Amino acid sequence: MNAQATNEAMDASSPTTLASLRDWVDQVAKLTTPDAVEWCDGSDAENKKLIDRMLADGTLQTLNEETNPNSFLHRSDPSDVARVEHLTFVCTTEEDDAGPNNHWMSPVDGHRKMDELFKGCMKGRTMYVIPYCMGPIDSPLSRCGVEITDSPYVVANMRIMTRMGEQALKRIEREGKFVKGLHSIGELDPNRRFIMHFPEELSIKSYGSGYGGNALLGKKCHALRIASHQAKSEGWLAEHMLILGVENPEGETHYIAAAFPSACGKTNLAMLIPPESYREAGWKIWTVGDDICWMRPGADGRLYAINPEAGFFGVAPGTGSDSNPNAVKTLSRDAIFTNVALTADNQPWWEGIDGDALPTVDWQGRLYDPTNGPAAHPNSRFTVSAKQCPSYTDEAENPAGVPISAIIFGGRRPSLVPLVFEARDWNHGVLVGASMGSETTAAATGAVGVMRRDPMAMKPFCGYNFADYFGHWMSFADDNDNLPKIYHVNWFRKGKDGKYVWPGFGENMRVLEWIIDRVKGEASAVETPIGNLPSAEDLNLDGLALSEDAVQTLFDFDRTGWAEEFKNIGSFLDEFGDRLTPKLRKEHAKIVDQLND
Ligand code: OXD
Ligand code: MN
After folding, report:
1. Which residues are catalytic?
2. Is the CB of 313 inside a 6 Å radius of any atom of ligand 1?
3. Is 433:409 a contact under the CB 8 Å cutoff?
4. Which of 32, 384, 511, 520 is least surrounded by CB atoms within 10 angstroms?
5. In the chain, what percentage of residues exceed pLDDT 90?
6. Is the pTM of this model over 0.90?
7. Whose alpha carbon is nearest atom 4 of ligand 1?
8. Is the same domain home to 538 and 431?
9. Same domain for 407 and 327?
10. For the residues 343-372, what does the mean pLDDT come to?
11. Which of 178, 209, 234 is the last residue of a domain?
């Protein structure tokens, strides 16, 4: 069908009354010249039709129907398995608005570059129009978008990850405002791959990748990069954080938001099952979200948070009954697996999965041969509805959001950083978040295990200059003393033997208990220059059999090491020059002074 015919066909089938949406879809169809345009309504029938299409053309494969009902395997192009930070741009009019934390291109150049790629790219393909809502459909904290894509795999994933279809379209028509996301898998050529953001126009253009973080535009592109920019001007926060509820034996639930870099265990923490002694005493963990948190102050000054997503796009390797039993149950049906391996009887397989079965086919579809590396790609993923998670709480659907009692920052720090410490106040907490460091993981292309600064776990996701972002965070304390307390944790501390010292997973409950008790003013800590540190006696370590050495490592404050760390943090802050809020510098200087006392 030529462009003219495409547009006529589309106009006839366009289900929207919103002229700006119709016009944009029309323009995109003219540029990309698809054979057909389909508006997605999010129905089961539509999903079935798309799944059948993908099974027919090999985009998806069925899995063992007995062990994994209604679940599918997708193998991506082997060069397209992770986010591509070096090809991700923020296009603001002023370069400085994007900041040293982003790759920048002018909006004019960004559009020109992308439109050149998009020209005619959907010829022979169907163009899907996906109206979606990030967050509960009736929440004032939610925001809507429309993604146009030529990938049915993206449609199927967006259906799980967002509130997609008819309801979202109605809200968009009511509000008249939406984020425009244009995506094509293009030729899946790494040399013709760009993820471009235009925060001032609330728009996204992504070309050449089908990978989740690059292609499901509601997730990182909208809910973090565009939303963080929007949140700054509207007085809220869009963060790379899980949200969980800790219910104590008295039946009181405290909600915690926690930022960790990609592939550092957010999904595991969000779905934590407390150790037996805690369960017996009546402790429970409720899951609200595992990756993204939007929060804003309520009338009482507390921060209220929603999870803008409706599903989990989690890292498969390392997920098993020992690390995350709730995830294992969540994955028992209706899931899409990407780049995992297969067993002889067609079950999905990854390193760390339960059971004795062995992989026979690797993530690239080759007969499994250990000399080729891991059977499942280290960044292989599952996509699954949050509603299937046994610990998912109805509060996640509460339009008002949940009140946050504590914010946790954490990274992979093999040395120096103790198990947990508490910021003295909000502004100190902002410095703790801003100076976060972590070793890189397989969630993005590039070297793994390299220590880098990843403020608030937002290095790959903040849609504007970090200097302004830190200032925005600090502005919340201006006339509000009802904000959450802020903590830093480190589950990844290693001993002299190179092994992890802290058992992690369900045992992290012990740290959460101390945090909640601190929030309530019921637990002790020792003041140090870096913040308030528990001693080993302040945490419940019963039954853990930690050696003296381990305890020393986890709770120690190494003044010399921290003095060196604060020099590095100072150099990092220098990168932001005069634009950095002096309040952050002051916090830094105060601690440097104390460390040198
Ligand atoms: C993710 C990521 O997929 O952070 O959540 O990369
Ligand atoms: Mn993430």
Report:
1. 264
2. yes
3. yes
4. 520
5. 95
6. yes
7. 262
8. yes
9. no
10. 98
11. 234
Q: Could you tell me if the CB of 83 is within 6 A of ligand 1?
A: yes
Regarding whether 204 and 325 lie in a shared domain, the answer is no
Do 384 and 416 fall into the same domain?
no
pLDDT in tens, 527-542: 999 999 999 999 999 9
Look at residues 52, 86, 98 and name the one whose alpha carbon lies nearest to residue 72: 52
User: For the chain, how many structural domains are there in total?
Assistant: 3
Give the whole-angstrom CA distance, residue 355 versus residue 518.
40
Q: Could you tell me what percent of the chain has a pLDDT over 70?
A: 98
CA of 102 to the centre of ligand 1 (A): 17
Q: Are residues 136 and 273 in the same domain?
A: no
| Nearest ligand 1 atom, CA 461 | 4
Instruction: Give distance in angstroms: CA of 380 to centre of ligand 1.
Output: 11
Q: Which residue has the higher pLDDT, 3 or 67?
A: 67
Q: What is the mean pLDDT of the chain?
A: 96
Residue 537 vs residues 510, 514, 542: alpha-carbon distances, Å = 12, 11, 10
Residue 492, both tokens? 């990844």
Does residue 178 lie within any of the structural domains? yes
Residue 424 has a CB neighbour count (10 Å cut-off) of: 18
Q: Would the CB of 213 count as within 6 Å of ligand 1?
A: yes
Range of the domain at 346: 312-388
For residue 444, the ligand 1 atom closest to its alpha carbon is 6
- The pLDDT tens digits for 232-280 are 999 999 999 999 999 999 999 999 999 999 989 999 999 999 999 999 9
Domain boundary (330, 358, 388) is at 388
CA atoms within 13 A on the CB side of 128: 27
DSSP 508-544: GHHHHHHHHHHHTT-S--EEETTEEE--GGGS--TT-
Ligand 2 geometric centre to CA of 290 (Å): 8
CATH number at residue 344: 2.170.8.10
Ligand 1 center to 320 CA (angstroms): 19
Q: Does residue 370 fall inside a structural domain?
A: yes
Residues 426 and 516 in one domain: yes
